[in-house]
Amino acid sequence: MGLLDGKVALITGGARGMGEAHVRLFLEEGARVVFGDVLEEEGKALAEETGATYVRHDVASQEEWGRAVGTAEELYGRLDILINNAGILKFRRIADMSLEDFDQVIGVNLKGTWLGIKSVIEPMKAAGRGSIVNISSIEGFVGAEGLSAYSASKFGVRGITKSAARELARFKIRVNSVHPGAINTSMALDPDMMNEVDADAFVKSMVMKRFAKPVEVSHVVAFLASNRASYCTGSEFTVDGGLTTGAGY
């Protein structure tokens, strides 16, 4: 038996990186998966390979949220799980960052998470219960130079998670956040950021001195989506190899 047998999951930002790992693991664990992304070529290829259902989905658009949720309901008659995974990162110091770039990061990472929660409340109420997992970041705990918009959005995801957990517990809908650290994805290895980071100092600050594979985050996400996490809500789970334990970070 799989951890997620019989569950219907909607995963955002699922075409590559951590989102792709979530899609693959959820399928392995028995879930029926609908995933969205704005990367249409990658999304269609992953759907063809895995059998998951791809929908084009800009998470900053309420209309496109309606289409993504509607697709899951039309195909499977219910929705049990939402993984708010879609996110973007722009490395710019405050003095150099445009308002447009700031708004885009907040729009995808924070507004998109809020819209996702809002969009699945009624389907999850109809299903009798649900699990929402919001992907934040260790930057939701600590600020970092050049990541003011990203950090602001990820701090905000923590607040939305806790408020939603309180509001939705009466409907048996659980809401938790996951906070990845150094994960081996194209976004985390953004060239603009890597050019500015002292790589040696960063590795020295790690307790486990390596980047994680995306699936190492997915295993925690799948647990929170499953019935095994039935008493977890409003909680924050770091997957950072000890990076935020304090020393040097």
Automatic annotation (TrEMBL):
Catalytic activity, EC: 1.1.1.47
Molecular function terms, GO-annotated: glucose 1-dehydrogenase [NAD(P)+] activity
Secretion signal, residue range per the UniProt entry: none
InterPro entries: NAD(P)-bd_dom_sf (IPR036291), Sc_DH/Rdtase_CS (IPR020904), SDR_fam (IPR002347)
Key words, A-Z: Oxidoreductase
Keyword presence, Oxidoreductase: yes
Enzyme class, UniProt record, top EC level: oxidoreductase
Protein name: Glucose 1-dehydrogenase
